[in-house]
Amino acid sequence: MSSLIGVLLTALFYSLVGWPLTYMLGKISKIERSGIAFLLSNGLSTFVWFLLYRVVGRFNLFTLLLSGLFILAVSCLINHTFGFKYKNLIDPKLTGFDLKLSHLVIALLLTSFLIGSYNPISGWDAITLYDFRGHTIALNHSLKDLTDDSSYMGYPLMISLDHAAVYMLKGISAQGLHSIILMAFIAVVYGRMCKWTNPRLSLLTILFIILNEEIFAHSTVSYVNLAYLVYLVTGLIYIITPVRESKELGFLFAGGLLIGLTTWIRSDVPFWMIGIILILIQGWQLRAKALSLFSVYIVYLMRHTWFHFFIDIQVSSRELNESLSSPTTMNVLKQVSNYLPDTETIKQIQSILPEIIRYLYLNIFSPFRGLWLLTIPIFVIVFKRRDFRLVLLLLAILLSAMMATFGVMLFSTSYSTWNLIGGSAKRMMLFIIPLAIITSIYALHLTGTGKNETK
Amino acid sequence: MKRYSWLIAFLTLVCFVLIFFESVPYLKFIVTSLHVNTITFQWLLLIAWIPPLVTRGFFHLKLLIITLLLCIVGESSAKTSLSIYRELRNITSNPFLTYDQKMSLTYPGFYPAMKEVVRLTPKDSTIIIPPQRNPWETEGHTGMVEYFIYPRQAINMGVDTKQLPQVEGKLYALIAKGSWERIGPVDYGWPKIPIQADHLWHIDTDHNVVTKIEQNYDPQINQWNWGLIEVKK
User: Do A155 and A129 touch, CB atoms closer than 8 A?
Assistant: First the structure.
């Protein structure tokens, strides 16, 4: 019971803190607003909590509250300065088959919460890393015993700080929070798809997403993969929401924040760059260059804040020379700098190319083959309809395939055991599931309407 | 052309159903029983979809998207439903278990042993554990052990290392037979060397009984599943 109270109190705190921040999005439904308020505030509150820790050297509920109040104050200031007001879009009234679909969706989400809350935290990565950090932070109110070992700091802290908040509220297991992250995502996707298509297609979209066994399973365990895909896909669909005629520029900024927050969940994967590319395209297309550059700056700021901290603890925990020559630091430095492969690396890649292709086929293509194949009819619809939003959605999918390919190539030259962790590559690509489902249903909608939604 | 598209759509669904069934009993099940190679079947279907894709109108495109979505969702929802059924059956059969009891079911032996280690040792102590290799994959993993015994520290030692580490505070050694099935050359049982001890504890995780024994550790005699040594300094 104490876990349930801890998880629900944490989720409520995030939703309340994030609520005013959603005013910049203009007219959206209450369902979508609740979802995005939770997601934005979860990421930003923990991020500010971490920054505050860097200043005062203590993680506790009071500093978390201060972080929340800071987010609240900044949101109110932004709303006041730019005149953003609370505008509610009435949720569509569901009847008949749609109502039954919505009941099924709610039942599945509650089942996910029940399973996640009931089961103990048992996944190896959760025990040895994410939840362990949550427990030690809650116990020590600091990063004591974590910064001595770089393996504990290989991933940014967002999920562990979420867990720490639940443990500080006397919860025993924070696993239920992961189902709430899925619920928030489903609320956002439903809201967006209602705007882009119609209630029935929106319901089918979210049902298809929840019914995916990988996504459902990840909502009941304490890993970072679900949170990562939620922030990445929400960020991408928010970035592509504004169209030329509309003035929904708040979505572009919120999208930038969400993409920045993906680097606060996982800093070892390159997909934040898809967000940057889409932000720049949208900035140019919407004639909002200043806003798009500011959004890109936010992404870099979040990413580099964590990396500088990581380098700091590496250097302070060892002798400088030893630290700079350690493989972990070298890999981080390569990621921080705009690492381009040199001739030696290219030769190395060439020598193991067949093995890389096999690895990509087995772990990136094959597990999602149906979803990758969906891009073929979507590609034809893009040519026939010339809908800009669909172009961007398809571009996001193609860029993710490209980045996964280049990422695996570079990874294979940095880590000798690269080909032994195929499951990790598959988990890294989970975001392709909701992205491809959203894209294909939006394309399906376009084939039925007989008009371009966005020129 | 419409009939052709319907036929291809039907065959695509059949292909995905075959692939799904193949994943349930064993891989290559369909090849051995029906002599249909599902991988080649997929590629043939992919080629068969090309003519409808280049024709005018949206009918064929819609049909292809719906077919693929049906295949994807059909396969994943079958797996999800099965997993939900298993989880709910587990919950309804044991609805009021405590967190400790659920952990003991997840990590039988290991979790109760770690709980006893926590009870028997001071917070600033160091516990030496087996190397992380077969058959000590779990109890030899410092991350796994430290999760349960924190703030105590866990240090790995080799299979036959004779020199014990010099540490501040009290030093303990975990006695672990090996919770994984033995597949390598190394036999069950650790530590494999005699250790001068203040006491030993035999931890019987099956019956929740801990027995304190005043003697040195002898690997030939003290062959227990779980135990703890307070190392003499």
Answer: yes
Interface of B with A (CB under 8 A): 16, 42, 46, 49, 53-54, 58, 61-62, 64-66, 68-69, 71-73, 75-77, 79-80, 83-84, 87-88, 91, 99, 102-103, 106-107, 141, 143-144, 146-147, 150-151
Tokens linked to B176: 């672990």
For residue A340, the SS3 value is coil
C-alpha dihedral, A19 to A21 to A23 to A27, nearest 10°: -70
Q: What is the Cα–Cα distance from A32 to A10, expressed in whole angstroms?
A: 19
Q: Is ipTM beyond 0.85?
A: yes
- Our CA angle for A202, A207, A210, nearest 5°, is 130
A278: tokens are 């889409």
Question: Cα–Cα distance between B210 and B200 in angstroms, integer?
Answer: 10
Beta bridge partner(s), residue B174: B228
B97–chain A nearest CA distance, Å:
9
Write the DSSP string, A63-81. Answer: HHHHHHHHHHHHHHHHHHH
- Give which of A71, A267, A61, A233 is closest to A158, Cα–Cα: A267
**What pLDDT digit, counting tens, does each position of B39-80 carry?**
788 788 888 888 888 887 788 888 889 988 988 898 888 889
- Contact list in B for residue A438 (CB cut-off 8 A) is none
**A84: region left, alpha or beta (phi > 0 left; psi from -120 to 50 alpha):** beta
The DSSP result for A402-438, as a single string, is HHHHHHHHHHHHH-TTGGG-HHHHHHHTTTHHHHHHH
Q: How far is CA B156 from CA A112, A147, B144, B163, B178, in A?
A: 37, 20, 12, 12, 14
- Residues A188-223 pLDDT 10s: 999 999 999 999 999 999 999 999 999 999 999 999
Q: Which residues, numbered 24 to 83 in chain A, qualify as contacts with chain B under a Cβ-Cβ cut-off of 8 Å?
A: none
Both structure tokens of A48: 């500010």
Smallest Cα distance from A254 to chain B, Å? 30
CB atoms near residue B29 (< 10 Å): 15
A-chain CB neighbours of B102 within 8 Å are 118-120
Q: Do B69 and A208 touch (CB under 8 A)?
A: yes
Residue in A closest to B149 by C-alpha:
A132
**What does DSSP say about strands B226-231 and B197-204: parallel, antiparallel, or unpaired?**
antiparallel
pTM of the model as a whole: 0.92
Q: Using CB atoms within 10 Å of the CB of residue A430, give its burial: 0 to 12 exposed, 13 to 18 middle, 19+ buried.
A: buried
Contact B58 A384 (CB under 8 A): yes
Kindly state the DSSP code that residue B166 receives in the 8-state scheme.
P
